[in-house]
UniProtKB/TrEMBL annotation:
Residues 41-256 form the Histidine kinase domain. It catalyses: ATP + protein L-histidine = ADP + protein N-phospho-L-histidine. It comes from the Bacteria. It is an enzyme of class 2 (transferase). Keywords: Kinase, Membrane, Phosphoprotein, Transferase, Transmembrane, Transmembrane helix, Two-component regulatory system. Its EC number is 2.7.13.3. This is histidine kinase. It is found in: Membrane. Residues 1-33 form the HAMP domain. It comes from Granulicella tundricola (strain ATCC BAA-1859 / DSM 23138 / MP5ACTX9). The keyword Cytoplasm does not apply. GO terms for cellular component: plasma membrane. GO terms for molecular function: phosphorelay sensor kinase activity.
């Protein structure tokens, strides 16, 4: 006690207030860390039974004497198991990132390379929906765990595609703002109503639960994105206009000591 708020030895009201505030903060921290451990343990414990269930059901499918009605039921059960496994894996990933149990392995990385890689991966998905996916980036060096930042980009572009209607447009841009690299994913999609904006990074939050379920959403994608950004010392923010589109902005600390932090874009031919 007395480490967070300076507690002088005067025995007055301020000292008592500081002491009780410190006690409250300690209790809150204990509760939070208990909560994170609990999520990690539960997710971990659910993995094995899910794997066993999947194995058992796959065995049923191998039996040639199983009738077609049973097959349909088994396939549907397998679908639900896949969905649950996805949720369990996501919860485990968030709990481990939040608690610091999962270390991220950062290396000097050009974020625009990661953006370009993701856009290439997602191009077909956007094309199928007749959505234009464009990229305007310039090299920006950050310390990043590239597989994790790729996951951030995949989740954000996947959302942009999911929540943009046919004929829409998505633009990925990068810029240096102060000491941060900013990556923006801007879409001309359905947008997010103002009352929902503060909650989109909360676990299991979905603006429209029915539509999100149909599109395969779990409401955990943005929570993972947020946990990864925080683990990098960065942040994510959202701005949106209902019915007009959404902009997700990822901020990551720039690698300022490197002469490669901001490499000028090649001159246009
Ligand atoms: P989900 O798996 O449901 O997509 P996310 O955590 O990725 O879950 O997103 C949470 C919710 O935020 C979504 O269900 C959706 O309602 C809203 N959302 C996220 N990205 C966008 C976007 N680009 N445009 C409109 N709504 C979005």
């Amino acid at each position: 006690l007395g480490e967070r708020l300076p507690v002088s030895d005067t025995g007055d009201e301020m000292e008592r207030l500081a002491l009780s505030l410190n006690r409250m903060i300690t209790r809150l921290e204990d509760a939070l860390s208990h909560n994170r451990r609990f999520s990690a343990d539960v997710s971990h414990e659910l993995r094995t039974p899910l794997t066993i269930m999947r194995g058992e059901l796959e065995q049923v499918l191998l039996d040639t004497e199983v009738d077609s009605a049973t097959r349909v039921s088994v396939f549907s059960a397998l679908d639900e198991i896949s969905r649950m496994s996805k949720i369990v894996e996501s919860l485990l990933a968030i709990a481990r990132l939040d608690s610091g149990a999962d270390s991220i392995n950062t290396l000097p990385t050009d974020v625009s390379e990661l953006c370009r890689w993701t856009v290439e991966q997602m191009h077909l998905l956007a094309e199928e929906k007749n959505i234009g996916l464009e990229i305007e980036t310039r090299p920006l060096m950050v310390m990043a765990d590239s597989s994790r930042i790729k996951q951030v980009m995949v989740n954000l572009i996947d959302n942009a595609i999911k929540y943009t209607t046919d004929g829409g447009k998505i633009i990925v841009t990068t810029a240096a703002t102060g000491k941060m690299a900013s990556i923006e994913i801007r879409d001309t999609g359905i947008g997010i109503p103002p009352e929902a904006l503060p909650h989109v990074f909360d676990r299991f939050y979905r603006v429209d639960k029915v539509r999100a379920r149909i599109s395969g959403g779990t409401g955990l994608g943005l929570s993972i994105v947020k946990a990864i950004c925080h683990a990098h010392g960065g942040n994510i923010t959202v701005t949106s206009k209902d019915g007009e589109g959404t902009t997700m902005r990822v901020m990551l600390p720039l690698l300022l000591s490197s002469p490669l932090s901001t490499i000028p874009a090649p001159a246009e031919q």
